[in-house]
Amino acid sequence: MQPTRRALLATSLALPAVARAQGAFPERPVRVIVPWPPGGSTDVLCRLLCEQMSQKLGQPFVVENRPGAGGNIGHDAIAKSTPDGYTIGPVTVGGWSINQYLYARLPYDPERDIQPISMHWELPNVFVVPAQHTPARTMAEYIAWVRARPNGVTYGSPGVGTTAHLSGSMFTGRLRIEGTHVPFRGAAQIIPAMLGGDVNFALDNLASYVPTIAGGQFRALAVTSAERWPTLPDVPTMAEAGVPDFVVTSWCAMGAPGGVAAPIIQRLNAAMKEVFEDASVQDRFLRTGARCLWTMPAVAAERAARERPMWRDVVRISGARLE
User: Fold this and answer.
1) DSSP states of 179-247
2) Which fold has domain 29-120+251-318?
3) Tell me: domain 124-223, CATH 3.40.190.10, correct?
4) What is the pLDDT of residues 24-53, one digit of tens each?
5) Chain segment 136-192, per-residue pLDDT in tens
């Protein structure tokens, strides 16, 4: 039986409509909310991605920093934006796997209100000390130096409950070192405090400290990855430095509000795949301190779910709690 003229017309109209729905996005600039201040690892690595996404999709990806409350302000802004794909943002391990155990109440539900697009990056934390104020050149020397100090040490982080804070708490607790946590709004504030001698160490995201390590202002004593990091081959792992069972990696995924249509998520995911398959982009991420990652959305969601029990226990042990 030959198709009717009406059926043929319906098909010819429907196919372009589907193509338009999937292929037109984005038709205007995309807002990218970064839940951390300018200059930190999340901001730096997001801007690298946005530069490439703008080229791939032909529209500006405009970064808007919304820091505060351990990332909750920015994460909440992503979650509550219009679900049309024109507002997305980097959601860190804190936003997806830590803050629900740290805060008495979150303004958003990390499992319901934000959907992943793809993993974005992963990096270790790095144990850094200000070279001008610290004689130690190895972790063993540093531990001995700290234990000789009558008032212990201070360590900085981008905020209570961040992986930097929890890593510092794990370090001082495990080694029975007297350590005082000093929260800041981001690495851009921690670095001057350390250079001024007001803070003794940080166990913070590597990407924030690459320039100062390379410039000699900071001395890297260890990384928290399971193996030595490619761009710091002479820096030992925590296990090699004498602190076993201390593997902590920070990670981030690009997220969108819950309810964004699947074709839009797929288009953004496919563009990220193209970006991260580029060897020059991979090299830029590594030189910045991170490893870029592409995954299907479900893989990012699975990782967040898998790590929640571990971070719940770490938060409990640290005693951190925020309203």
Assistant:
1) EEEEE-SSHHHHHHHHHTTS--EEEEEGGGTHHHHHTTSEEEEEE-SSS--TT-TTSPBTTTTT--S--
2) D-Maltodextrin-Binding Protein; domain 2 (3.40.190)
3) yes
4) 899 999 999 999 888 888 999 999 999 999
5) 999 999 999 999 988 899 999 988 888 999 999 999 999 999 999 999 988 889 999
